[in-house]
Amino acid sequence: MNGAGNAFIMIPMRQDDFLNQTTLSKFNELVIDSYDQLIFIHESKNESFGYSILNRDGSQAEQCGNGARCVVNFVQHFYKKESFELYSQKIKIKYLVQNGEIGVCLGHTSENVPAQHKAQHHENIFQDNQDSWEYNFISVGNPHAVIYHNNILDIDLNSLKQSLLNTNAFPEGVNLGVYSIDHPGQISLRVHERGVGETLACGTGAVAAASIAIKTQELENPLSVKMKGGTLKVLLDMNTQEAWLFGPSEIEKELKIDI
Length: 259
Prior knowledge:
This protein has 259 residues and is α+β, with helices and mostly antiparallel strands. Helices cover 18% and strands 38% of the residues. The protein is built from four helices and 19 strands. It starts with a strand and ends in a 12-residue tail after the last strand.
């Protein structure tokens, strides 16, 4: 499946299924197509579903916005369920289908999560190739560093990410997003995802960048986020302070693999 270009392999799991590192390595050998993350779907007896996420390197992701949207699409298609309860790490995920696109609520963002970010706001500056860079930290369940730059295509994202990690400010690693402003209703974004690398799209990265841009640049809300794989829309609910992510998702093909 893909969500705005973010590539996922969705795996329905039985209760006795277990995936260890050896099985994951074998799976990666058998799957030729590139993917960003594996998402495991767990069905409960009470018309509810849970999911867990593994990055391609085997590390676990706390959340994935595009992945959550694809889970909704997958459950509706594979399990033939139009309405159901959805959980990620025991947290209920709200979702809706609007104008043919799936939207998910990613809860409240936070700019103060000491377990994910040890630096104070005035310390959010680092060096890369003799240039100084300033970032905003924000958590969307998973940690993000967001940087504004007027020309994101010129940036060596791999080098910038490594220099950011060298600050040792992120105990759990970090997702790095750099954005530019196209117009008041849209930003362009590149994201280097933790445990994956640069991806064509990143849902939580879109929410992180849009949240920062709306608050610091006074841009429109909802805000469109253009990435290489497609365009997502982020809505910040000012009443509940929750962030919603909307965009396309599609099932590309179905495969059966014996491991």
